[in-house]
Amino acid sequence: MFAKLALRNVKRQIGNYLIYFITVSLTVALMFAINNVIFSPQLQEYAVNIPELRNGLLTLTVLLSLIVALVLGYATSFMLKLRKREFGTYLTLGMTRKNILCLFILESLILAVASLLVGIVLGAFVYQGLMALLSRLMEFAFVFSSYSVSGLLITIALIILVFMLASLTSAFYLQRVRIYQLIHGDKKVESGARHPLLWLIVTIISLCMIVLCCLVFYKEVEATILSYGEASEGLMFLSLLALAMAVVVFHIALSRSVVSLLLKNKKFTNRGCNTFTLRQLSGRMNANSLLAGALSFLLSFAVIGSNISFVQKVSDQASLEKSYPFDISANLDVDTDIAIDFPEAKQIISEYTHIEREFYYDIYTTRQSYLYGFTPWSGEGYNGLWDFFISESDFNLLNQALGWDTVDLHGRFLILTDMQQMMNMDFSTAELNVGGRSYAYGGTSTDMPLNTYTYFVAVVPDEAVQHMHVQLHGVAFDLQENGYDAQNLRKDLSYTYSSPSGFRFENTDYQIKEYARLSRNSNSAVFVLGALYLSVVFVFMSMAILALKTLSSLSEDKPRYNILFRLGATEREQSKTLFWQSFAFFFLPFALPMLLSIPSGIICSHIMQLNGFTPQSGEVAWIAVWIAVVISMIYLLYFTATYRIARRNVIYS
Amino acid sequence: MPDILQVHNVVKYYGRGNIVTKALDSISFCVDQGEFTAIMGASGSGKSTLLNVISTIDRVSSGEICVEGQRIAEMKEKQLSLFRRDKLGFIFQEYNLLDTLTIRENIALPLNLKRVDVQTTQREVMRVSTALGISEQLDKFPYELSGGERQRAACARAIVARPALVLADEPTGALDSRNSRVLMKTFQQMNRQLDSTILMVTHDPVVGSYASRVLFLKDGRIWSEIDSGGRDRQTMYQEILTVMAALGGETGVR
After folding, report:
1. CA-CA 20 to 30 A from B38: which of A300, A331, A562, B229?
2. Under DSSP, is residue A384 helix (H, G, I), strand (E, B) or coil?
């Protein structure tokens, strides 16, 4: 009998349940899609060798589960609120609490099963979309991706778990709630905030904290990069933590101050329905201040996370060009056994692709650390760091090969580095004495045509290297085309290295640009996809909760707007009032995260500049703008849909 | 006295196709300025329907209603809103105060909608709240007041903007007999001291006896009419009972 009644109730209340159904279906779809991505063979194969990735994916699943639990818990409480009065009436008619609980759980179950099915179908498409994006980012051919049983089972298990938890909470509530509360609960008015002035002070202090945290973070990032990653990162993380707390506190305080203070402004409240709008917001914002803080934190995370993920991508691409000026290069140390020498390497490479050009050069050393004395990498802990040199003619040979300008040293020496930070180091007093001649400092350049594992190399006139020891033999190959199997080429150019402690691993002396590109692409793909996915989930969750909150209060709003109608408020005035009421509620947790796009963009752009990627810094700033625009558009769409539903129900009903 | 309200041959049908109910059947009457009129009748007699069409919440099927010479049947939705705002005041059985607003804000709302300046609004709110004895309750919320106080607050809101006509739909329906008497005295006070024109729907003969004129409805038509003509309330009450007995309706005595 209950099943029949529950089914009839679901049918009858389909309009009210629609938002619940959509929310749960989309949550299931997102969950199912990401679980399938995590268990996809492509990603699993990739994750085998990277424990951090496996841990990251696990963290992502746990985080997502918590979010799903929160959204579904919220959606269930929305349903319960919607039916409170009806359940109260059932109780007065003689139904037992157990009967009502059975009925409610059955109804929720029907919807949960329907949402699960629709969500899985929808998720199947989302999964293919995510895999298409992943394959594009990781540069493997996209084929129809198979679905994972584990992904499906985890999704179902999670939804069942959350459903059971939500049912238990509902059971607990229905077991204890008084009939009066069920029937007359809606009549209780949410009270406004107390001590609005105090909360205003907290709002201003937290806003100052947000600005201060951004400034401290900016300075600390700069200091960390300029100190070559050796500065303490404690303050940087502390500023991020303080920022997160300040964002939450700011929204709690703002929710409790601004409306109450506006209500004190007689001139403002005296106009049209302003008092009504503010009173509608006052209690609601006060009651939901913590929620606004939490949502703004998630949205801030979405904005900052998306920005960082794109910076990572752009930075990876830019640094690849800088770190790998040639397609393949190698520096073989004369003091160690050479596993694969240049002729053998050339032969191996030729089996994969045609070598167009090849250049040979030597790296020299004085076996001294004179130049390192002008850098932070000298003294205790840096013993054994020898100065390395390249001759002017070898340097110009590589420059010419790359189409870069050649240099004329005029008896001076040049510091060559790929670290932008070294531009600020003072070598002006350095005077290099080699073979009875001295060479003055002639400048620092970051246009490095070779890839060495040293902080810097000094370019000296050819006669100077005559008095130095050859330490490395270098080679640079330019290939005709890059569409070869870089993974296997790297394998063929690798050898097994045994460390003195007995540890053995695969190693290669040859740096292959194409292999590095694919490898970086894979890393950034997982990073970008993960960050973007989390951002989407956070934005979606925030919107869903705000929409549910707005729509669940419609039953209370309807009679209030009816009174406005009878008092002579025009349809336009009522719509305007409802718009501001909904907009302020939606906008509150959204505005600050969007504003945080500005410091995020500035900091990311600055990071790019500090790392020597000035041309890409503008691109990063534009990405920040685009992220803000895209999130705003999604938000606006969701708000518009919610507002239109609310208007139809409250004003036009 | 000029006519504030003119109802001429008003007909109202409900339903479609074969199932049609004639709720109002060629009703005509006028209400003068400063008059306190009650409409009485049994359940289903059409009194609430009549109030709804006069208050522009519902449309007539045919006939004409004029308030201060303005024909409401010809008005568009926006004009009707402005008409309600400027010409009508409402008092309902369930008070219909906005629970989120204080009493002061509730009373000021019609003036806010008319964009009246702050000083005038405050002055008018004080004027009506003092006259109705609720000036001490202005900063409280509706749930903090008794039923009688709430209804007086609703009265204050209905008359604060000096409407041409105050419409009351079973205003004592949610009140006990003592509070009903207090409210009816308030109505008389509004009518005599504040010069409000009141049209009230009720089924209670005691409440009806406070009016200066009573219209009796039966099956959507005006069946009878009583004018107090300066007689005392008790006499008016007795007459109402007599008419109601003849009508065959309710004769609830409090």
Report:
1. A562
2. coil
Residue A498 maps to a domain: no
Residue B252 has pLDDT above 60, yes or no: no
**Residue B133 backbone zone (phi > 0: left; psi -120 to 50: alpha; other: beta):** left
Residue B112 to residue A280, Cβ atoms within 8 A: no
For chain B, list residues whose CB is within 8 angstroms of any CB belonging to chain A. 55, 57, 77-78, 81-86, 88, 90, 96-101, 105, 108-113, 115-118, 121-122, 141, 143, 157
Select the residue from B58, B78, B81, B160 to test the A interface by mutation, using most A Cβ atoms within 10 A: B81
Q: Tell me: the pLDDT tens digits for B24-40?
A: 988 999 998 889 999 99
A185 contact B CB<8A: no
On whether residue A83 sits in a domain, the answer given is: yes
DSSP string, A331-365: EEETTS--SS-HHHHHHHHHHHS-EEEEEEEEEEE
- Alpha-carbon separation of residue B194 from A230, A436, B204, B213, B217 (angstroms): 83, 115, 24, 18, 28
Strand A469-479 and strand A328-333: the pairing is antiparallel
The DSSP bridge partners found for residue A445 are: A416
Domain stop point among A188, A219, A238: A188
**Structural domains counted in chain A:** 3
- The pair phi, psi for residue A413, each rounded to 5°, is -120, 155
pLDDT category at A487 given cuts 50, 70, 90 is confident
CATH dotted code for B3-99+145-247: 3.40.50.300
Identify which of A95, A100, A91, A68 has the alpha carbon closest to the alpha carbon of residue A171.
A100
> Does residue A267 sit at the B interface (CB-CB below 8 Å)?
yes
Q: Are residues A371 and A227 in the same domain?
A: no
CB A624 within 8 A of CB A529: no
Distances from the Cα of A610 to the Cαs of A249, A313, A418, A615, in angstroms? 32, 16, 12, 12
| Closest chain A residue by Cα to residue B95 | A563
Which is more confidently placed, A87 or A277?
A: A277
Do A179 and A275 share a structural domain?
A: no
CB of A605 within 8 A of CB of A617?
Answer: yes
| One domain, residues A444 and A532 | no
Q: Do B84 and A563 touch (CB under 8 A)?
A: no
Same domain, yes or no: A364 and A306: no
Q: Which two tokens stand for residue A650?
A: 């409250």
A627 and A596, same domain (yes or no)? yes
Residues A106 and A217 in one domain: no
Q: Do B98 and A560 touch (CB under 8 A)?
A: yes
Contact: B108, A568; criterion CB under 8 Å: no
Name the residue range of residue A556's domain: 193-326+519-653
Element (H, E) at B239: helix B233-247
Tokens of A539: 């934005």
* Residue where a domain terminates, one of A141, A172, A188: A188
Which runs of E-coded beta strand occur in A40-179?
none
Task: Tell if the CB–CB gap between B105 and A270 is shorter than 8 Å.
Answer: no
What does the alpha-carbon distance between residue A121 and residue A143 come to, in Å, rounded to a whole number? 19
The verdict on A161 and A220 lying in the same domain is: no
The verdict on A149 and A276 lying in the same domain is no
Q: Chain B within 8 Å of A270 (Cβ-Cβ)?
A: yes
| Residue A23 falls inside a structural domain | yes
Q: What is the pLDDT of residues A568-597, one digit of tens each?
A: 888 888 999 999 999 988 888 888 999 988
Out of A274, A276, A573, closest to residue B98 by CB: A276
